[in-house]
Amino acid sequence: MEGTYILSCYDAKRWYTFANCWLHQGKTEQAIACYERSLKLQPNYIPGYYKLADLFKQQQRHSQSLTMYQRALDLGATEIWLPSHIETLIIERGDFADIDQRFEQCMASRLHRNHQGFTNRSTSGAEKSLLLYTNCPGTYGAEQVNHLLMCNLLKQGYRITCVQSFANHYLIDERKTLGIEHIWLKKDAHNFLYSLTNVLEVVQILELIQPDLIIFADGEPTANLAANHVAMRLGIPFIKVIHCVNAGWADRFSAYLPLLPDIYRAASTVISVSQANLQLLRDRYHLPEDIGQVVYNGRGKAYFAQRDQGAGLRIRQALGIPPSATVVLTTARLVTSKGHQHQLAAIKLLQKMPLWGSLYFVWAGSGPDESMLKTQVDELGISDYVKFVGERSDVCALLDAADIFVLTSHFEGMPLSIMEAMAKEVPVAATSISGIPEALGKTGKLLPDPTINPEETAMCLADAIETWAANPSLRAKAAAACKQRALELFQGVNMLESYFSIIKKSLTED
To answer: Sign of the CA dihedral 469, 474, 478, 479?
Structure first.
């Protein structure tokens, strides 16, 4: 047997070499035939599957291309580019055939369920089971809203289960202490391929929890599509909350957008976090005009409390910032879309101004751009003035230490960080995109859209920082206006009351 295997490997490599020669001559069909012959002789040769996958994709034979990539995965392929290649193919193919097929296979083995849902869900008057299913597992805006909602639903007497990708941070610890259960998804729910194919996992989770209502807290309109679809097919009531909408995503996932209206209509309610995002859902994501409502995000009482000067001074001391300095704070993930690069461009302008030595920038957050940004800060020679403080659970204290808050994002939903700064009476300068103009109204400073004119964004930001740093009274006036608007629009109790009303209505309708 061993000698036969060696001979097969030798012959397989010979046919693989033949295939490469045909491919070099532009003879695609001959190359495909040779690659296939090679794999028959050596079925575990992963590069052969890659070659066939690429050739099938060029011929628009997407199903066959996917099969080749899947076989490579089954053999243990670990190339970091492989999931994105598979995701692209699925998007280009643009159908739900696999999801429907998987769903039917799952349900065929679960005959004790009917097509309208679970037969033993809670009856009226019993403890209601709510499941919050999200692709946002971290500690940023959407996650904070989800956390506040779950904790307060628990206080209302509901049984709460959170379904998300695995995470380990202070919000998880707090939920566990309160008795909120977690079910960890097997993979990263942000992976579009995974969120399209985990039908069996979703059915098993719903079978275990038997929820009376699902709250899909989606980070984008096409998140959790398989889970949305399964809930719809099972007839389980669900609310769809879409935390962020971006026009560019509509182009990327265009093949799947026609599938969204059925999900929207099956939902008890579709919630957007800003009017701008709601309109974008209608313009680009096929949301019918008669469906959808806005519920503004909100923050808890701690953010509306009077600023703690002592806490602010302790933060400054810990970071090596003088008490008299002007602190410019940003709380955001360190990714390109949050626009820290525009702050660096503004800093280059501020370095030429007399007040430069009194300005300090504090960046709270982490992300894939952290190393690159630290390198750029070092190259500019400003590492003493730009403080990277990582992910923080003490945002209130950071705001106590701040004089100005800046957010230079390329897109947003309705950013919680801006609301937190406004509530803490810190003036806000932020880019005029998505829901930010709604958040600020006539308060703070709206900056130009950085995706249109980044140079103008940097200049306007530098001007706003210089103006507020040089004029404490003007800064205090802007801060007071921000605080008043936050009191009117962004108190957490108002957000929670809206969600409680929607949830009660959804349960009653069921």
So the answer is: positive
Looking at the DSSP assignment, which residues form a beta bridge with residue 73? none
Mean pLDDT, the chain, rounded, equals 89
CA dist 451 and 448 (Å) reads 9
Nearest CA to 252 out of 207, 284, 211 is that of: 284
* Number of neighbouring beta carbons within 10 Å of residue 168: 7
Contact 133, 224 (CB under 8 A): yes
3-state DSSP call for residue 256?
A: helix
pLDDT tens across 421-446, in order? 999 999 999 999 999 999 999 999 99
158-176 pLDDT per residue, tens: 999 999 999 999 999 999 9
Q: In what order do the strands lie in the sheet with 269-272?
A: 181-185, 159-165, 129-134, 213-218, 238-242, 269-272, 293-294
DSSP per-residue letters across 138-178: SSSHHHHHHHHHHHHHHHTT-EEEEEEE---SHHHHHHHHH
Q: Give the neighbor-by-neighbor strand order of the sheet with 359-364.
A: 386-390, 359-364, 326-331, 404-407, 428-431, 445-447
- Tens digit of pLDDT for each residue in 438-497? 999 999 999 999 999 999 999 999 999 999 999 999 999 999 999 999 999 999 999 999
Assess whether pLDDT exceeds 60 at residue 416. Answer: yes
Q: Is 462 exposed, middle or buried (0-12, 13-18, 19+ CB in 10 A)?
A: buried
Tell me the pLDDT tens digit for each residue of 212-235. 999 999 999 999 988 998 999 899
**CB pairs under 8 A, 24+ apart, for 249-255?**
249/220, 249/221, 249/222, 250/221, 250/284, 250/285, 252/91, 253/91, 253/192, 253/222, 254/94, 255/91, 255/92, 255/93, 255/94, 255/95
pLDDT at 320: 97
Alpha-carbon span 110 to 195, nearest angstrom: 22
Per-residue tokens: 318: 């810990």
Residue of 510, 352, 334, 332 whose CA lies nearest to 421: 332
Contact yes or no for 470/462 (Cβ under 8 A): no
Greatest Cα-to-Cα distance within the chain, rounded to the nearest angstrom:
87
